[in-house]
Specification:
The protein is mainly alpha-helical. The chain has two domains: 191 residues, Rhomboid-like (Rhomboid-like fold); 67 residues, no CATH class.
Length: 291
């Protein structure tokens, strides 16, 4: 029986600090160092920003370091908001290390896209780039690619379907990439981050089921459909309707949802579970207690 298995008894291991919180602490600490350096230390940190001159000199580390610097308090705050609301959801769905790869991969690809345009059109894209916007945009796009039919409360007030919000963000980034009239904002980096986030969810996680028709705003069908248990989602996400899968019979729920997780525990250990998989196990335990 399910309740007799050792990993269904006792307390779950203490969860680690969410990746979104770790990233927020890191970029905030880096911004604080920028301010301290500007007033007291006066070290030259310009080589940490991403620019064509640095790449010519072989400063490839700029593809990472530029993601921790910010041009101002509002620039930092807007990126922290995106990381907080969308990073938690993405980490919950795809796991901690995949989320790390997605975040920094989006930042790197966004930076490379900006550099490509800077080498091609230095008059419009020649300035150095700083900020976590590309990585945060990747998290936003990934979250929406995972849940395209949810509503997002823009400014916590205005509901908009997630997939339409992503279309708007992509359209804005693409327009100002083609028409670079605002040199202060690296729209090309934003666009690169958005494209990377969608591509990773659509193809990076499901390479074996790659389809040639690009449908980025349709939810990817999984080998096993997940039961919608009590998922911890950011407050700006709003569920459209209660899932009918909550009424799945206990036997089918265990065989379809729980057994694959138990197989994963046997193969990789309980520490390999994502927060969502832990929630499914908790739901299974609750169902068994009611029987």
């Amino acid at each position: 029986m399910l309740e007799d298995r050792f990993y269904m008894r006792g307390k779950e291991p203490r969860l680690r600090m969410p990746l979104s919180v770790v990233l927020m602490i890191m970029v905030t600490a880096a911004f604080a160092f920028q301010q301290i350096n500007a007033v007291y230390l006066h070290w030259d940190i310009s080589n940490l920003a991403l620019g064509t001159e640095g790449l010519r000199r072989g400063y490839v580390w700029q593809l990472i370091t530029f993601q921790f610097l910010h041009a101002g308090l509002w620039h930092l705050f807007s990126n922290l908001i995106l990381i907080w609301f969308f990073g938690r959801m993405v980490e919950e769905r795809i796991g901690r290390w995949r989320c790390v790869f997605l975040y920094f991969g989006s930042g790197i690809f966004g930076g490379l896209l900006h550099l490509l345009l800077a080498f091609s059109f230095p008059g419009h894209f020649g300035s150095a780039v700083v900020g976590a916007s590309a990585g945060a945009s990747g998290l936003l796009a990934a979250a929406i690619a995972l849940e395209p039919e949810h509503d997002i409360l823009v400014c916590f007030v205005l509901p908009i379907r997630a997939k339409y919000l992503l279309m708007v963000c992509m359209a804005i980034a693409l327009f100002f990439t083609i028409v670079p009239s605002d040199p202060v904002v690296a729209h090309a980096a934003h666009l690169g981050g958005l494209l990377t986030g969608v591509a990773y969810i659509r193809w990076g996680l499901y390479a074996k089921t790659l389809q040639w028709n690009w449908r980025p705003f349709h939810a990817q069908r999984r080998r096993r459909e997940l039961v919608r248990t009590a998922v911890l989602k950011p407050s700006m996400w709003r569920q459209r309707r209660k899932s009918e899968e909550e009424d799945v019979p206990p036997e089918e729920f265990i065989s379809r949802e729980v057994d694959p997780i138990l197989d994963k525990i046997s193969a990789q250990g309980i520490q390999s579970l994502t927060p969502r998989e832990r929630q499914i196990l908790e739901a299974a335990r609750a169902r068994m207690e009611k029987r």
